[in-house]
Amino acid sequence: MQCDRRLLFYVNKRNLTMRKVGFLFLFFGMSATAQDAMRWIRQGDSLDQALDAQGAYEAYQRAAEGDSTNNLARVKIAEKIIQFANEIPRSAEQRKKYRDAESLIRRSIKEDSSNIFAYYVLFEIFDKQAAEESGSARRAIFSEWKKLNDRILALDTLQNQTYRWLGIWHREVYGVSWVTKTWSRIWSDGYQNASLENSVDLLRKAASLDSFSCGNLVEMGKTLTLMEQWAAADSVFLKAVSVPVRSKRDHKIQRDARHWRELLSEKRYSELELAIE
What we know:
Elements: H1 2-49, H2 53-66, H3 71-86, H4 92-111, H5 116-132, H6 135-155, H7 160-174, H8 178-186, H9 196-209, H10 214-226, H11 230-242, H12 248-265, H13 269-276
Helix pairs in contact: 1-2, 2-3, 3-4, 3-5, 4-5, 5-6, 5-7, 6-7, 7-9, 7-10, 9-10, 10-11, 11-12
């Protein structure tokens, strides 16, 4: 009997030890996987800063393949897909890229609704989709955009992009048709509060939080242009082309700003407003 008890104790102790060993293997294996994914993400970020968008995209893909739970990798992949879509003409291929990016971002938000930066990528998709849609489809995009923007503003009031995208929302909604605005007042989508004044105030707030973002400055200049504040718009565009370039996208933003300054200097206001819209 004493021997049986000792044998049972030994077996139980051995099983417990094996479970611990198995847990440690699993833990360190998962840890190593997560670390490998972060290494690929850091490599992707370095390539992105070096303006190698394709290399960055491939690095982010490697991170996601190595760690399917990594939300950051999904967000960064979606950002690159949008960048690639922006570089090709409007087409079925471009729309598909936006849909692919949207699918990744919505999955990220579903798994982590506190990931503010995922919302920013989604807002960029909304901006592109709203330009292609009309009627109820466009109204639905603007409605969800505003609802989500208000949600993340409640989470963090110090992120410049939150104010930037809300400022763009005000400008875009201000430009929709009278019928859409009237219908949306009935459904309380907040359209009645959309104004260019609100837009420029929000974009000014975004610029104050990140004064080196040429994107924030250019968006403010676009709103000032639509308000026909030509001198103020030119001043903001000048600031936009003077800040350091931080990404490949910044090159295009600054190129547009230089072109718009030329149109302003030549007083080609109608052409400028069409280019901005």
